[in-house]
Structure formats: C-alpha cells, structure tokens
C-alpha cells in the first residue's frame, strides 16, 4: 500500500472522531503554551495567531459569495418563495481541513520553538499602540 492510500485511510478513520481530534489539538496547544510561557517566542506566537485567525475567517465564510452572484440566470442564494428549497451553508474551508491545517501550523510552530535564534523579543510599546 503506498503512502497516499495510507494517509487517506488514516484521514477517513480520523474524520468522524471530532471530540478526540480536538482534544489532541488542545493538548498540542497546551504544550505550545507551556513552551511559550517558559521560553518566550512572542513574535512566533503572534504569527501563529495571525495564521489561525485567517483560517477561522475561511472557516466562517461561505463558499458562494452572494455579492458576486448578480446574473439573473444564476439561482438566488436566498429563498424567494415559500416553496424554495433551503440551501445549507457551505464554508470555504471544511472543518476537517481546518483541523488538519491548524495541527500542521501548531506542529511547525512547536518545532520552531526549539530553535533559539527565533526567540525574538516582542516590543511591548509597538503592540500597545503608543
């Protein structure tokens, strides 16, 4: 069995295990937070937060943008009659892909905390806004 099939098999087994996946991610976040608390890495944590917040934006935004659907031939996003079928919300980034990417980012950030040259100090007055 090649690597791609093994990864797909593991992915298929992990996908319905919502609670266990996010518990493992929580443990990873706690371990990262402990490393940051003990050793610093403020700038690395800032970039980690920015990338995760970008992913959250994609998770919460719709795949179909109603502002771009202006053609009269295209079906309406919102129901116009009582008999119209309800169209479910389809996110740009599905939850499982969001989880996979967040874990990859956390693992990379955690590995980067073991490189001392990346422990750049955060300048508090720049972050404060004065």
TrEMBL record:
Name of the protein in question: Protein RER1
Keywords from the UniProt entry: Membrane, Transmembrane, Transmembrane helix
Membrane topology according to the record: Multi-pass membrane protein
Family in the record: Belongs to the RER1 family.
TM annotation in the entry: 20-37, 105-126
Naturally occurring in which organism (per UniProt): Castilleja foliolosa
The keyword Cell inner membrane belongs to this UniProt entry's keyword annotation: no
Database matches in Pfam families: Rer1
InterPro entries, alphabetized: Rer1 (IPR004932)
Native organism taxonomy: Eukaryota, Viridiplantae, Streptophyta, Embryophyta, Tracheophyta
Any one annotated GO CC term: membrane
Subcellular compartments: Membrane
